[in-house]
Amino acid sequence: MKTxxxxxxxxxxxxxxNSLNRVFNEINSLEDDxxxxxxxxxxxxxxSCADEYLKLKSNCDKIIIEKNCLESVKIIFDLIEEQSSKQxxxxxxxxxxxxxxxVLL
Length: 105
What we know:
Helix 2 (17-29) packs parallel to helix 3 and helix 3 crosses helix 4. This protein has 105 residues and is α/β, with parallel strands linked by helices. It has helices spanning 6-9, 17-29, 47-58, 71-86, and strands at 2-5, 13-14, 34-38, 44-45, 63-67. The relative contact order is 0.19. It contains 4 helices and 5 strands; from the N terminus they run E-H-E-H-E-E-H-E-H. It has one domain (2-86). Strands 1-3-5 form a 3-stranded parallel beta sheet. It has a two-stranded parallel ribbon with strand order 2-4. Residues 99-105 have low confidence and may be disordered.
């Protein structure tokens, strides 16, 4: 399984949709079927960037596992998934985490 550390390829702040296109172009070119995306040191992801990540992930034929997501990053992903389901979009992009699932109270 190949691990991609986002902070090494981008920065600690994921803001633009285009930045993720480069990462997913690399992922799609890999021979590995299973890819681990390491969110270590990622302290912020914009809503538009998170939305793009989930769209690119859903169009990818690889198994993608997220690792080291901060709670604040997970909340943004959960918000987008919740909004998509309310709008009638069926999403198969549920975050797969290498750590324990979060529970929002």
